[in-house]
Amino acid sequence: MREECGVFGAFNCDDAGKLCYLGLYALQHRGQESAGIVSFDGKNMYVVKDMGLVSDIYNSEKLSYLKGNTAIGHVRYSTTGSSNINNIQPLYSRTSKGKIAIAHNGNLTNAYDLYKTLISEGALFQSTVDSEVILHMVSRSRKLSVIDAMKETLANIQGAYSLVVLGKEYLMAARDPHGFRPLVLGKLGDGFIVCSETCALDLIGAEYIRDIEPGEILFIDKTAGLKSYQNTVKTKPSFCVFEHVYFSRPDSLVFGESVHNVRKEFGKRLAREYPVDADIVMSIPDSGNSAALGYAEESEIPFEFGMTRNHYVGRTFIQPSQQIRDLGVKIKLNPIKSVLDGKRVVVVDDSIVRGTTCKRRVQAIRKAGAREVHLRISSPPVNYPCHFGIDTPKREQLIAASKSIDEIREFVGADTLGYLSIDGMLESVSCKASLYCAACFNGKYPVKVKNKGKYSFESRKIKLYAQKNGH
Ligand code: AMP
User: Fold this and answer.
1) Which CATH number fits domain 260-430: 3.40.50.2020, 3.40.50.2300, 3.50.50.60, 2.40.10.10?
2) Which mutation among 78, 351, 358, 360 tests ligand 1's pocket best, with the greatest number of atoms within 8 A of CB?
């Protein structure tokens, strides 16, 4: 199953459930389809999860229900029609190692094989989420302690995972040996926070300590404090460059670098690679903001607000049907005629995936009076699907897979089109370019992917009426 997600965990913090709620608020951009929080008060686990946005799901009554000083939470968006309540994370279960809840960001590339083995051995699956294999494997492990069982399990799963795991009096955090997705550790009073991005630490006033390292399994409990273990599988890191291009929030530190600064550098390099004579530089808000500022600074062409954004709608790209998506494009952004009228405009956006949103934006900018539209994209053409946790459509739907740059320019209706080069993108991240995965741009997948796109475990679903209350 292809998913985009955000995870959050709080250990030994007053009102851990409420902190999770705030953390998920800050991570809402990583998934808007469903959200869940599981808390633990040393005896019972409390669960509140539902479809929808964090702000719609939780109210003071539900937050008071989440007792205990340890909790984990998850926001999720999935693509493969598996929007059912059984799939909302965190997943939780009674296991041979006690009650465990788990929240996962990423895609396990060998989950289907593991699922088939587990099912043949009699496992009973409750969801079609790849992360459920982890719960089964931990429970079935002959190791006595939960940490040893988790180490054994993680040595046998492949692909991308940034995990937070909650159990009796402990919190675990783990990142796959490639470190595809981000995961950071923070401190709040005597407690600890683990979450996808530092913007969630900022919101709750926690201090950023460090990234969870690729391959690290961190066990936090009251007796030993923090204990760090390393996955027995060793490999070179492959941080996802698309986190910097689009996915993460600009106010976060991701893989140790400011997302805003990296995006600004993308824009500067883009200005050097594709200069043009123009009157103003504008961004497609918000995804193009930081790169447009960089382009304007480097080119010395004034930055202007050419479009205004309605903040009360979700990400248009991820609405389920094309018709709704098309409408969403209009609801979200409106050009400012007085800024654009008669101008030669450089328009900066972060990426072109299918090309349909982009085409509508260019049309709207022209309709508002722009004389020339020079489209600049602060990443290379998206040419291959991601199998490690970013929702990119199948290759056939990626415009760059079937059209040349000039055909794309014609399709979107721009006067000129320039994409940042792969080298330009990778040189913009100050830690070494070779530490990044750019498979969606260059097709070099760091892990062999079997059963491409087949992460969902069943073709026929068990359909359950999604009640609004009671879970
Ligand atoms: P399109 O022109 O239809 O290819 O849409 C491109 C827009 O979608 C860009 O402005 C991106 O900011 C946004 N986008 C790119 N990747 C994703 C993603 N994985 N999820 C949601 N939106 C995305």
Assistant:
1) 3.40.50.2020
2) 351
